[in-house]
Design goal:
The chain is α/β, with parallel strands linked by helices and about 500 residues long. It contains eleven helices and 24 strands. It starts with a strand and ends with a helix.
Length: about 500
């Protein structure tokens, strides 16, 4: 019998302590320490590879110039939005973690990906659903032949899983309902898949650790085994993870450090649109974003999000503006709405949906101090349409114009767009990649756009900084917030 050890782990951050503590010293959370029994690995318990390596190669330090490197081949999926979020495709041997709220569509996204990978053998491991439940969902996503035989890893299309062999598009997805990592690795050795999907990491358990599935030590141990498998076999692995009530991925924080890429699948449950956002990516940009539309037959990628985020209005309404923003490398036009009304109570309400409330308070202070608008006794409500959340400061100008439009009850022309950051002194600051914002507004038929004068060339050395002659849209160059209101409201 292996020697056992008892330790206490924080369920929020994974901090380990030899004794129970009321308050976690790492994350300052109360009553999050739980007792777990740790056990040293038994030699009879198999690891991810049943046949042990005969000789262990010792790594030696190598100079950077002596390392041979060839261009990394990425596995492209039929989903262009998914490829963009991953930085151009799936990297061999990468470990990707996807988190999101319950019912947001994580399993649907990954099963849809597994069913639409032609020529790629995909093993979908589920610890939450039975094979018949997955079969029902697969039939909803795409038409399927009769049900497969029971037992072991099987193909969704009715034939037993062969160890190898060419298969057509959509005919190479195999389902395994298992929670033991040792049994999963045994099936992986027999099947030799090109891609593995785990749904979810909190349901797996390893025989190396004596604790319940989903605990800090189990999540850490299972992730470490899958990480070793991915790196040594160059097989990409996707992990679906649960999130806590605070919106963080459940389990120890080290889980996000161990994986190569962290994706957050988010969206409003009352809207049909879902957003796949990059939180961390070792192989690409960490600010990319993909937009999907949730339909009865699955998730549909949205190639032009500006058209769905802009509402179609028959008549001009006050408090509505259009702002040009960027998510990663993608320019988008979003609709910003504001409602300003007299507060019936002593303390006015300040509520923002999809925008930082503290930044909204800053904008209100600038409007009252620099422009003379009395907003101290007014209720102010802001909303970013489409159920998305925007952190780009370039929408400051559009939000300020929407607030004043609602306050004065004067509509802003429908074909007007804004792209500018507002400073504390009331100046309109320059924003990055303004050319892409102008081009997106011009493509969607807007007639004028307000930008900062500091985006214009200021000398001979940067005379090519912004050339307005190639745009047909009317570009309004402003430097102060007062100039914007003078041009809009007279």
């Amino acid at each position: 019998m292996a020697k056992t050890k008892i330790a206490y782990f924080c369920q929020s951050c994974g901090y380990e302590s030899p004794k129970w503590l009321g308050k976690c010293p790492a994350c300052q959370s109360w009553n999050t320490m739980v007792e777990e029994v740790l056990e040293k690995a038994n030699a009879s318990v198999p690891t991810w590879k049943a046949s042990p390596v005969s000789s262990v190669r010792a790594n030696k330090p190598v100079q950077v110039a002596d390392i041979t490197f060839k261009e990394e081949h990425r596995l492209l999926t039929p989903d262009k939005e998914f490829n963009r979020v991953l930085g151009g495709g799936i990297v061999a041997g990468s470990l990707v973690l996807i988190g999101g709220e319950p019912g947001i569509g994580k399993s649907t996204l990954m099963l849809q990906l597994a069913l639409n990978m032609p020529g790629i053998k995909v093993l979908y491991v589920s610890g939450e659903e039975s094979d018949h439940q997955i079969k029902m969902r697969a039939e909803r996503l795409t038409a399927q032949p009769p049900p497969p035989p029971e037992g072991g890893a099987f193909d969704l299309h009715g034939t037993s899983a062969p160890p190898s062999g060419g298969r057509g598009a959509g005919d190479s997805c195999y389902i395994l309902t298992e929670t033991s990592t040792q049994n999963i690795f045994k099936q992986i050795e027999e099947l030799q898949p090109d891609l593995v999907v785990i749904d979810s990491i909190q349901t797996l358990h390893s025989a190396h650790v004596e604790s319940t599935p989903g605990s800090v030590s189990q999540v850490r141990e299972c992730t470490a085994e899958l990480l070793r498998f991915a790196k040594e076999t160059s097989t990409p692995v996707f992990l679906i993870g649960h999130i806590t009530k605070d919106g963080m991925i459940a389990g120890p924080k080290i889980l996000e450090h161990m994986v190569d890429t962290v994706l957050q699948f988010e969206g409003d449950r009352h809207h049909v649109y879902r957003i796949l956002r990059t939180i961390k990516n070792r192989f690409g940009s960490a600010s990319e974003l993909g937009i999907y539309e949730m339909l009865g037959e699955g998730l549909r990628e949205v190639s032009n999000p500006s058209e769905i985020l802009l509402s179609q209005r028959d008549e001009p309404l006050s408090g509505i503006t259009i702002s040009a923003t960027l998510e990663g490398m993608r320019p988008m036009l979003i609709e910003t709405q504001a409602l300003v009304s007299t507060s019936p109570y002593g303390t006015p309400q300040r509520t923002a949906t999809g925008f930082d409330t503290k930044r909204m308070s800053m904008l209100l202070a600038v409007l009252e101090k620099r422009c003379g608008f009395r907003l101290g006794a007014k209720d102010v409500f802001l909303n970013i349409t489409g159920g998305i959340r925007v952190e780009d400061p370039a929408i400051d100008l559009g939000l300020a114009a929407a607030i004043i439009s609602s306050h004065e009850d004067i509509p802003i022309p429908a074909k007007t767009c804004f792209a500018g950051e507002i400073g504390l002194s009331g100046e309109i600051r320059a924003v990055n990649r303004v050319e892409q914002r102008i081009a997106e507004a011009q493509k969607l038929g807007f007639e004028q756009i307000f930008i900062s004068k500091y985006n214009m060339p200021s000398g001979a050395k940067d005379k090519n900084r912004l050339d307005l002659s190639r745009y047909t849209i009317d570009v309004k160059v402003v430097g102060r917030i007062e100039e914007v209101f003078g041009l809009l409201f007279g």
